[in-house]
Amino acid sequence: xxxxSASKIxxxxxxxxxxxxxxxxxxxxxxxxxxxxxxTFAENEVYFDRAVQSAASxxxxxxxxxxxxxxxxxxxxxxxxxxxxxxxxxPEPVFPPGIHPTAIISPSAQVxxxxxxxxxxxxxxxxxxxxxxxxxxxxxxxxxxILGDACRLFxxxxxxxxxxxxxxxxxxxxxxxxxxxxxxxxxxxxHRKVPQVGQVILQDDVEVGANTTIDRAAxxxxxxxxxxxxxxxxxxxxxxxxxxxGIIVSQVGIAGSTKIGAYATIAGQVGIAGHLRIGDxxxxxxxxxxxxxxxxxxxxxxxxxxxxxxxxxxxLAMERLPELLRRVADLERRLGIQSEETPSEE
Length: 346
Known about the structure:
346 residues; alpha/beta; Udp-n-acetylmuramoylalanyl-d-glutamate--2,6- Diaminopimelate Ligase, Chain: A, domain 1; UDP N-Acetylglucosamine Acyltransferase, domain 1; twelve-stranded mixed sheet; 40 strands; 16% helix
């Protein structure tokens, strides 16, 4: 593992060293497992107290915490600095240019000499692979696909024909891009398949987590906007358009033709119905069931999903419902009213 002086790390971050600038740091670890020679980080007082009590030699901090036995590296935002520094101590593997002898490459494919194509990969007709593209192994890239510079496919990724990836797209293991959209019409007692002849476009800096599927459009394109990050086990239906810099957390399902604005955050296990419009900077809470359009900037919760304040009021009311039922029953007994139902005493 590489090592760096505190001053070198501070230079990388535009930070200030409080303590020994020549201190050599050999690793980065959370406070509860840090050892001498490690750097850790503290974004608030609770984390700082833990870091001070740890064996770490230096702490990344964002606030004006008092210096102690450890060297402090003071930054503007501790978590951002954490993300910037981790690659120094844990650099990604470097894949040398070249094509593994077990790979199958169509003669009509255009492969940049700097690309790495690992074992048992299949690259179809008229595929274009840009500079520094990495196919790690067992990846299948269908005909007419385009992968921009520095795209990385982890093992066992499948790209159906005509998938387009911008630059620096990362697709984790088991991802399937461009499979048929779920489109059928009921005809004479049977479900007739609607041919899905569109494509998927992943714009620059999109990352897609393991075992996620993104369906190609029936016509036109399913589009994932620039900088959007999609977690594991997500299903995105045909003709969906996701705006730039979105966050889509695990086990979300988005039905066909829904449009989602920029900077949206969709929490885990959310289900979104088809043909909806979700605005810019919308936040949807975990396990919500969205069946209506959502205007820009709003937060929605619940199933069916509603604006967060309304949903929270209803949740609080539901918690009070057993007590309210008991109070109503008591009033009915006092007034001599025969109740149709007796509330549970549980």
